[in-house]
Specification:
Blueprint lengths: L2 H23 L5 E5 L6 H15 L4 E5 L6 H8 L7 E6 H10 L7 H4 E16 L8 H10 L5 E4 L5 H13 L4 E4 L3 H10 L4 E5 H9 L4 E5 L25 E9 L4 H15 L2 H10 L2 E2 L4 H22 L5
Parallel strand pairs: 1-2, 1-3, 5-6, 5-7
Antiparallel strand pairs: 3-9, 4-7, 4-8, 4-9, 4-10
Helix pairs in contact: 1-10, 2-10, 4-12
Amino acid sequence: MNNKRRMIWMLWVGALSLGQVWAQAYPSKPVKIMVPFVAGGTSDIVARAISQKLNEAGYTTVVENRPGANGSIAAEALAKSPNDGYTLLVGSIGTFAINMGLYKNPKYDVMRDFDAISVAVRTPNVLIVPPNFPANNLKEFIDFARKNPGKVSYGSSGSGSSDHLSAEMFKLQTQTFGVHIPYRGGSAAQTDIMAGNIEASFQNFGTVVPYIKAGRMKALGVTSRQRMPQLPDVPTLIESGMKDFDVTSWQAVAAPKGTPPEIIRKLHADIAKGLNAPDMTQRFNGLGFDVVTNTPSEAQAFFKAEIERWTMVVKASGATVD
């Protein structure tokens, strides 16, 4: 072996050894898990479940809610954080995909600034209305919206969220009109639905099932291809006449770009083990979530595909940031 090859080999071995040391020493201090929405929404539920399981695995974690701009504030903060594995983001389809097509000049770039760890869970959206709303099915809702143009206000967890884009797709197909009211998270929109302050919202199925079962809101249709077993009497929008209306919201975990691969692999292994534990799968399945936990490379490819898909939807709908 000549000197040049020997030097390259020694550098490679040294880098491998250093990576192993980093992984073995990690974590040596608390890990901050940022949530780009208010407490109580889907991303918050997922983040706190991950936090619980990482703590059980020997980590010390802190969950920090940093809402605003459909996740952009927290996402920008992650992009500027050290890539040492001690700052993570649990965000939504809006944070990791839709924002890239919605904002003309986003302050972060998912593919450039983040290393995907895993898509954690996914769930469809559901069209909900207040319990006393004068419509009990999709046809009645569309008829009401057409007879009262501009008077149906629909809330979302933020401009560009999957529930916002679901509403925009709905408006395109039905030629109905409404006033969009963006909130700083799904739980705030849900509260106003139950209070009757807004007329409609497409919310993540998993977060509103208990309220629907309790009669605090009505469900008119789900955005999945098949009915959800948790609410078997609620039809899909597709079977109610909405062609190809198939929308799945999802939550994922990411770290700053350049985080050591050994740390990414360790985080993925520990998060996947935690979320696939029987108590967690039972909990999430009961709420209407599917646990995904795909690999970092699969998650990164999924981010790219979703960015391309939702950029086209944003363009077709003319959706803007309010």
